[in-house]
Amino acid sequence: MSGVHTWPTDLDIVPFELAVLDSKGQVLLCNASWRAWADVMAPAETAWRAGGNFLRARSGPTAATAVQLRIVTAFGCALHDAKSAPSASFSSGSGTNLGWHFLEFRTSTLDRAGRIFVSHTNISSARDLDREPHAENVEEQFGRLVARHTDRAIMILSPQGQIEWVNPGFTQLTGYSAEEAVGQTPDILHGPETDQKTSALIQQRVGSGLGVDTEIIHYTKAGKPLWIRSEIRPTRDCHGRLEYFVALEVDITEGKRHAEKLIAERNLLTTIINGLPQMIVWKDHHSTYRGCNERFVQAVGLSCPADIIGLTRDQVPALARQLSHHDDIDRQIVVTGIPVLRIRETFRLPSGEERIMSVSRLPLYPTSAAASGILFIGEDITEEEQIAQKIREDEERWTLALEANSVGVWDLDLTTKALTSSRRWSELLPEASGKHAVDSPIPAELVHPDDRPRYLSEWSALLSGLITTLGTVARVRIGESFRFVVVRGRVAKRNDLGHALRAVGTLADIHEAKLSQMQAATATKLESIGQLAAGIAHEINTPTQYVGDNVRFLGDSFKQLLALFDERLEALTPASGASAASRVDEVDLPYLREEIPKAVAQSLEGIERIGKIVGAMKEFSHPGQDRTLTDINRAIASTIMVATNEWKYLADIKTEFDATLPQVPVFPGEFNQVILNIIVNAAHAIGESAAANSSTKGTIRVVTSHTDHELEVSISDNGCGMPRQIQERIFDPFFTTKPVGKGTGQGLAIAHNVIVQKHGGSLTVSSEVGRGTTFVIRLPLEATSAAAAA
To answer: What is the pTM of this model?
Structure first.
């Protein structure tokens, strides 16, 4: 008999009233007994018949509100708990027509459509107990009417509260047989945990002839405690006299335990929520608050969480003045179901204090897929924000300090080789700032080849622990030129084995300071050399003078002696004259007469040249450090003389000096050094050109001229010349085209600094490969006019 289509026939066979309801209470099917009962009880009520909704009867005994509530409750229990068989009882008629009815609801196990079977039992026959004195008849009547159709425990109690009859469901529930129960009071079901106040209430109500509904702990015969929902109803005769009590008992132990578990979990959840530091509140989709935690209560100035239930934001004084924009946000969340998380807001406490909050608002889904409320979580982040703000201010302050500082700061993770640096470091080393992995704060390929071994050695010593701090000066390629920098650092972190994990330090451009130091050292050296050269020149000049005087004296004396010799020779007698002539022939007097004057003349010429060289040395090595009015032509001539050994084998020097050139205010020693460096470079350029064609010497031409405002010195050569890219870098410090170790790249850099920085002039170069190079020095004459006026 499976299948829905056979149900009508099957149901008509059932001897009691039976109907099948769907999950909404609509009557799908009912048997003949049900239809006959409906015709008697509510002939005009369509809700009792197929197609009607049994839960919404508008006439008949079930139309009463209280009865409908019991029926709907039982129906709902059956719908949500397939293992239960909830029931509901109600009365009909009055006086002698008073009847009692018992409905039991069960979930269908034949399909999954949520159908509910509802059966009806008329228990009005209990009124005949006083006309059926024998217990056998009572048991037969009630057993026939009730026992076969319910597993609920039913007791019939006398007006004095004694048990007169029990159904099989009672025996199944308690373990007591009818024989053991009849004649006893319900107290046989009491035990240690039975609430005495509830027991006294039942006795008081029954003693007064009144019904009572309670929940109480009863014990089975085996001593097992059960939570029981007890419904006791009095039955009266037509004269209103109490006849008996009908007691229906349902085991609600599992439900009670479940409820207690839920209560415990709810209490735990409440404790957790109240213990959280966040403010938590929730409300329904009508923006009515349904609950909150203690932290929220404190924040809005309420007494307890229950105070907020049923209120809206405008009804809470602390909230009415703020957070009005939340209403629109909440409506949007309910519609879209999308939470709004971690919004930073300012919240004003009842005391007027303002706190910074991180607010999240989430949709609530308690029973359906659509959001039916909003959960608000607010975390006070005032202290964190204050700390974060201070950190931001400190970081900004340090960032500004680092950006305004000329020193670059670096932090190198030696494990990942990642380097973090300040903006100034990136400005100093733009070529290194884009590297993702580095072995040292300055990539080795950027360090000048002459300085690279020392730099890497000192860096390795720092990492290995041989030195505790790094402080090294090196020339580093920045753009197209090398500049002096100083790198300082220390190891900030090592592992247990002593291996360096992190190093920090600074990088500073000290190029100008280093050049100044080098120039000062050069000037000091030049001054020392000048003083030494001047002293040597003085010492050489003194003996040269008296050697020259003596040679001239010897020359003059030789002439006088030779004249005297001639006179004496003529005065001799022929005999003695022949002997003297023989002696003259022996000493080769004609040769001596011709060569001794030549020797004296050559000696005097050499001594004169020595004097000129000594004078040039004295001019070139001018020891003064102050700007003085200087004869530029004479200074250049002296420098050419001193540098003779550098150029005489490679070139000839031709000078074209402006005879009207006024004296110019210069630093003589440094100016002479500039001229020397340019002449030496010209000689070397001619030497490189001569290597290809050694048959001819080159020419170096030095020309001086002036205008009303400036002096011009032009030094040109016909050497190898320079390409454009070299001309652009010729004055860069440390730039040289010579092999490593043969050129410092400092000569022309220093020359440029001396002319431009110290004298306020200009030094330019023009060159053509294969044709030669010309350097032009221009110096202002304003100081000359000022000196003349003074």
So the answer is: 0.40
Strand ranges, E, within 365-433:
373-380, 407-413, 418-421
Q: Which residues, other chains included, contact 664 with Cβ-Cβ below 8 Å and sequence gap of 6+?
A: 629, 630, 632, 711, 779, 781, 783, 784
* 411 backbone dihedrals φ, ψ, rounded to 5°: -140, 110
- Phi/psi for 222 (5° steps) reads -80, 0
Give the single-character DSSP code of 659. Answer: T
Q: How many CB atoms neighbour CB 284 within 10 A?
A: 14
- Tens of pLDDT, residues 118-156: 888 877 654 443 333 333 343 344 444 444 456 678 888
Biggest alpha carbon–alpha carbon distance for the chain: 217
Residues 672/620, Cβ–Cβ less than 8 Å? yes
pLDDT at 197: 93
Q: Please report the pLDDT score of residue 141 as a whole number.
A: 43
Q: Please provide the DSSP assignment of 549-598 as one string.
A: HHHHHHHHHHHHHHHHHHHHHHHS-HHHHHHHHHHHHHHTHHHHHHHHHH
Distance CA 617, CA 533 (A): 7
What is the mean predicted confidence (pLDDT) over 314-342? Answer: 83
Question: Secondary structure of 488-543 in the HEC alphabet?
Answer: EEEEEEECCCCCEEEEEEEEEECHHHHHHHHHHHHHHHHHHHHHHHHHHHHHHHHH
Q: What whole-number distance in Å separates Cα of residue 548 and Cα of residue 540?
A: 12
- Tokens, residue 665: 């205010």
Distance of alpha carbon 162 from alpha carbon 184, whole angstroms: 6
Structure tokens at 147: 């026992």
Note the pLDDT tens digit of each residue in 270-301: 889 888 889 999 988 888 899 999 999 988 88
Q: How far is CA 768 from CA 352, 681, 774, in A?
A: 83, 15, 9
Identify the CA nearest to 619 among candidates 630, 608, 606, 605. Answer: 630
CA 686 remoteness from chain centre: 62
